[in-house]
């Protein structure tokens, strides 16, 4: 093709789904990912997909790709949350309506890593590993990505920053107005064979330990009935609370994270213990819980050749599972605008940002409000 490619910074979910939109419209693109492979870092917890998120994904993928994606998703009976005291095993409320809508009366979920690999399908030859984008350079008729080693990309028609909460593209584009805050909360992600979850049964569960003087400890997990008897499969859980990683290093994965999770839950009810006693230690990972400003996505002077998607522009807490669902809406919206124009056209980034600020800002506010009420997260003070 004669047109310049669209450059994409980062190979996460939002970036890869956006690439799928370009692929369907035969618009050239190149993706630059800082990691050397998908296996360098943990992919994080399992995602629950809202109706809005599913609609966005379906609008981007071909019918065949969509069916393959949806078949890979797990579907849990939509009975809603059940909350328990983690130490006594007592149910602390009755089943409540699920806050994240899903299809056919089911809660739909998929592991981040599996979702990422599905979105990569067909884009492999355009993904460049070990390319850490640290900024960009505008040219008279395009833009180039600048890498950490001082080299630059080929000239593109547009640069889309989708490299997450530490996006250097977002910082440069917004003049520092886009900020990510440390909520002070920490988490551990873990996985165990599905048989470890049989004591819970099917549903979405929240376990709370309020006996700790340093603060409450929470676990969220999702159990799918049809997979519960297959020991070859794994379910994930997410632990949130006053957790401190060794040497304050939240890049630690594996046994150290697993050992801390086991020690924190040592006095929990026997019904819940298998989730930790039988966990796959190599899959355990620490993480910091961050959030963009809940006051809304800030305004910056639009740059027609550069924009941002996903966590790079609206990072959220895990409360409500809203973040990834909003990120894929970015991918679908920007992909649709570019597809309808047949490629890059001036005015596309301004139109995208105007619409994204509305739903993206509302999503951050909602997620932060839920985190304050259910996870004990306080006021946002320090940026990361």
UniProtKB/TrEMBL annotation:
InterPro entries per UniProt: FAD-bd, FAD/NAD-bd_sf
All copies of domain FAD-binding, residue ranges: 7-358
Keyword Thylakoid: no
This protein's UniProt keywords: FAD, Flavoprotein, Monooxygenase, Oxidoreductase
Species the sequence originates in: Mycena albidolilacea
Annotated protein name in UniProt: FAD-binding domain-containing protein
Keyword Flavoprotein annotated: yes
Source species, domain of life: Eukaryota
């Amino acid at each position: 093709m004669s047109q310049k490619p669209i450059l994409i910074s980062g190979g996460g979910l939002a970036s890869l789904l956006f690439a799928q939109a370009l692929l369907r419209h035969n618009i050239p693109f190149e993706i630059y990912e800082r990691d050397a492979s998908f296996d360098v870092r943990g992919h994080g917890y399992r995602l629950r997909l809202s109706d809005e998120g599913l609609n966005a994904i379906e609008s981007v993928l071909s019918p065949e790709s969509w069916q393959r994606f949806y078949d890979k998703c797990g579907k849990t009976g939509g009975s809603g949350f059940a909350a328990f005291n983690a130490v006594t095993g007592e149910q602390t409320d009755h089943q409540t309506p699920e806050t994240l809508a899903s299809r056919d009366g089911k809660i739909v979920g998929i592991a981040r890593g599996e979702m990422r690999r599905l979105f990569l399908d067909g884009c492999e030859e355009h993904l460049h590993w070990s390319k850490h984008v640290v900024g960009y350079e505008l040219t008279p008729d395009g833009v180039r990505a600048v890498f950490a080693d001082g080299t630059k990309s080929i000239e593109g028609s547009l640069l889309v920053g989708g490299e997450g909460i530490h996006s250097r593209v977002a910082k440069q584009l917004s003049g520092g107005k886009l900020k990510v805050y440390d909520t002070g909360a920490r988490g551990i992600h873990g996985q165990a064979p599905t048989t470890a979850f049989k004591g819970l049964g099917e549903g979405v569960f929240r376990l709370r330990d309020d006996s700790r003087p340093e603060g409450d400890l929470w676990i969220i997990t999702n159990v799918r009935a049809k997979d519960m008897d297959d020991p070859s499969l794994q379910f994930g859980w997410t632990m949130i609370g006053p957790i401190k990683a060794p040497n304050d290093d939240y890049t630690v994965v594996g046994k150290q994270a697993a050992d801390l999770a086991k020690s924190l839950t040592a006095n929990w009810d026997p019904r819940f213990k298998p989730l930790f006693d039988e966990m796959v230690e190599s899959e355990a990972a620490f993480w910091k819980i961050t959030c963009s400003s809940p006051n809304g996505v800030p305004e910056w002077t639009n740059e027609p050749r550069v924009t941002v998607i996903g966590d790079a522009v609206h990072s959220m807490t895990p409360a409500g599972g809203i973040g990834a669902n909003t990120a894929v809406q970015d991918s679908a919206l920007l992909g649709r605008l570019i597809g309808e124009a047949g490629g890059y056209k001036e005015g596309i980034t301004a139109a995208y940002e105007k619409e994204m600020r509305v739903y993206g800002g509302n999503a951050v506010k909602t997620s932060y409000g839920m985190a304050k009420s259910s996870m004990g997260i306080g006021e946002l003070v320090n940026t990361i």
